[in-house]
Amino acid sequence: EEQRRHATVLEMLHEIGREIASILDMDFLLDRVGELTRRMIEHELFTVFLLDSNTGRFTWRTAKGYDPTFVREKEFHLGDGVISRAVELREAVIVDETSADRDYIEPRTLDGRMPRSELAVPLVVQDRVLGVIAIESVEPNHFTTEHARLMTILASQVAVDMENAELYREVRDQARARQEEADRIRRRFESYVTPHIAEQLFRDPKSKALAGERRTVSVLVADIRGFSPLAEALPAEVVVEFLQEFFSLMTHVVFKYEGTVDKFLGDAVMALYGAPVAHDPRYGPSDTQRAVF
Fold it and tell me: Is residue 74 left, alpha or beta, with left meaning phi > 0 and alpha meaning psi from -120 to 50?
């Protein structure tokens, strides 16, 4: 009977390890570990603390059965509680009777019952302690050396999965940052060229158009006739509104013929045709013709 029970627990442990290995979100991973741990070992309270090795501060990452106010307000540092002993020893720590343990810190629980025993297991990977898994029971002498052995095996798997989840988060964040930067550049680029041309350029970022090359282009410079006396005669806000309307209209015209707005010069707009993308005259108006249009 004992061998059958032991085999069942080991099989369950294997299934749990296989399931959590596929989870790449840290919060979901630790919450799921809490749910699955109960399948192996009966307990009332479960928590995972993450350890900041630089500050020595523990962070509650997931907590079940504790008063949320206690979780928000209570801070643990190295040297506090049974979890610190687990970190220092780098092995599972069993507390048979919490009231007799010098390191035990009494929590506030959701149901008001006080824990009588605790099992704290460090999360260790490559000789680094990432944190501690702690489970508590309202029954004294509840946890056994077998429980400690099983939780140590599970904690080793969880620590590796935590590292994988953190690596995934870093890669995801870097990819998101690169995409946001690309989108920002693209939006800025599209204020000078048409979306069609921008699409061509971003489709082939190694093209000569972006790398730079010498080529013949047509340049259009258009300004407002008699702008100086007009500006002197009109209120400043009217002049600004007039320029905004002019630049908006000219940009629309330049984009219509797939030119590139190079710059605004006072009351003038300067546009290029043939850069960054040239138009083959065999398939439509040449760049010079587009500038004239």
Answer: beta
Lowest mean pLDDT among 62-71, 84-93, 112-121, 204-213: 204-213
Centre a 10 Å sphere on the Cβ of residue 131 and count the other Cβ atoms it contains: 25
Distances in Å between the Cα of 51 and the Cα atoms of 64, 76, 176 are 18, 10, 27
Distances in Å between the alpha carbon of 189 and those of 120, 206, 266, 275, 276? 56, 16, 21, 13, 11
| Nearest to 26, CA basis, from 163, 177, 171, 176 | 163
Structural contact between residues 52 and 69, judged by C-beta atoms closer than 8 angstroms: no
Look at residue 107 in the predicted model and tell me its pLDDT.
Answer: 95
pTM of the model: 0.60
pLDDT category of residue 268 using cuts at 50, 70 and 90 = confident
Q: Is 132 left (phi over 0), alpha (psi -120 to 50) or beta?
A: beta
Q: How far is CA 166 from its chain centroid?
A: 9
Tell me how far apart the alpha carbons of residues 64 and 103 are, in angstroms, rounded to a whole number: 21
Quote the CA–CA distance of 165 and 159 in Å, as a whole number: 10
Q: Position of tokens 């953190």?
A: 166
Cβ 248 vs Cβ 256: under 8 Å: no
Of 93, 248, 213, 104, nearest to 155 by C-alpha is 93
**Could you read off the pLDDT of 81-96 as tens digits, one per residue?**
999 999 999 999 999 9
Structure tokens at 227: 């702008």
- For the stretch 144-182, pLDDT in tens is 998 998 889 888 888 888 888 888 888 888 888 877 877
Contact 44, 116 (CB under 8 A): no
Rounded distance between C-alpha atoms, residue 220 and residue 37, angstroms = 72
